[in-house]
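Form 7-S
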Amino acid sequence: MLARIFKNLGFDPYLCSLGPLEFPQQNPLKGRWKGIDYGYLYPSSKRPSSKIMRHIFRLSTLLRSTYILLRNRKTTIWVYFYNPRFSDGILIMRWAKFLRLKVIVDQTEAFSLEGHALSKKEEMWIAKHADLLLVISKELIEFYKKLGRSKNVIKLPLIIDLSEFDKEQVSSIENTIGYLGAFGVNDAVIELVEAFSLARLEKPELKLRLMGYSNTADQLKEMIQLLALESSIELVGKLESEQIARELKKCSVLVLPRKSHAFSRHGYPNKLGEYFAAKRAVLISDIGGYSHDFEHAKEVYKYNPNDKASLITAIFEVLSDQELRNKIALSGYTYCRENFALEVRQDQLARALGSLSS
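Output:
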């Protein structure tokens, strides 16, 4: 999405993948997507098991990246990095700084809060050397202030293309709860399934749709079978970007079951913007951080984190009140349009780049 913004601002972006990604079957290792050139610099779609081969692949990626920087140094104005680490992006950042290119760093996490000592050094290096630092939350702004970085830091939480959602005219399925995400450690998906199982004892017509990639799918399937919920829970699987709007709109309400810990509070889940854009009522665990941006029973309906009874109450209260559901859905959509829309973020980034270029 940021590449589209840079293109709209008159730049000619080139997207580089520094890590292993699944290569799209219909695309070569380099090409053009929606008018933007891209290339996979890592020589494989998977990280090799051999430590020696991992170092060789990393060196290969570094050399190819260096070649691209050197070849384009006279025409390149900005080099953008997303969550760079010492093992990949920060090494390229060093070359970019050596070549006197301006560097933008987009930080969406505070990795050191997970207890990694190396991450703290990475964050300190970024705080010192990034020309423009984009962070995803107010908490990350404060986090980097403590590292001595207060200038040229802007909050850029989410970028949503509302046109992709507005064109999808899909009716919701009655009494259907939806979740979209990576089923990662930050989201209490197991607890959501347990709460749903208890809620069905009182309201058996409830349905739950779990959307997104899950590396714990087998565990979830076993749990769903154990609870005899096969007919009530749908594991939709991984969605392509063009499927997200349609699948979210099939739900009556959408749930963001974030766990309460410091790492989560410093983030800003992208799916929250997609939930808002789908114009459906959103239930979120009130973990602090980004949840403080919203008013209870206005843009979102909040429930206590790590509390299944509170989640069940929220589900019943929102599903049973059509007027409340519509109010939350519209308020969330309005908040998204005024704060997360592509055009809003484009103007914000244009002002930031302009102030640094002048």
